[in-house]
Give the backbone structure.
Amino acid sequence: MVFAACWPLCFCAGDRANRIVIGSKNFTEQAVLGEIFAQMLEARTHLQIERRFYLAGTFICQQAILSGRIDLYPEYTGTALTAILKEAPQRGNEAVFAHVKGEYERRFQLTLEPPLGFDNTFAIEIRGDDARRLQLKTISQAAPYTPQWRAGFGYEFMERPDGYKGLASTYSLRFAEPPRIMDLGLLARALTEKQIDLAAGNATDGLIPALDLFVLADDKHYFPPYEAVPIVREETLRLHPEVGGALAELAGKISDREMQQLNYEVDGKHRDLKQVAQEFLHAKGLVH
């Protein structure tokens, strides 16, 4: 968070007239999506594109876009609903998208571009060996074992309305010790190294299959939809409507499986982020 405070408080109009700044949160998927946005805008517009990825979590990105330090970033509808709008989880992808879009426009002068095609819900993960040995498929089935387990969660998950407290209450989860608060990028490895026994990760995490982790089904439907969407400043779209046109071409183009594979290319194979994004856009016929 220190680096956020070091940014200039404002930009002069001339400095930003033909420059678009793309931000992202501080995990791989966000940077991949930010790079996809950047390359699409570079291919479709004559604007200068600046990348400011890994800007910590949801609230830092929200502050950055409200202050004009960034013009757009990837977000998830359920996160916008609960963490930013502070509303209770709701059901239905279309209903949540429409509600969040309306409230963002009314409250923040931000808008949601069409969903990218995948839903990155929270994934309650355990080791594959444990799932097979105990024959577990759902969170409800795992709940009786949690008093002997240690849990690990990200900071936001511990604090947000759709996070730990509601999940624990819904499923009567009790752990052997207070949950460990960990960086999202460390959760999967901590599971495999048996530092923890259950984690709340991301459903599209590329390391889930690679590390033989198992995602327990949310059988009580606790989590809202988390469709990935570009969040954009309305002022940016007013000055540069071509930005909206370029982002709209990505609507529905990324499936859950494709996003998981993109994440794995970066996290699992340690490939260059820009090359992974370029190959994806080329395979979709969006860039040449």
About this structure: Residues 1-14 have pLDDT under 50 and may be disordered. The two ends are 37 Å apart (CA to CA).
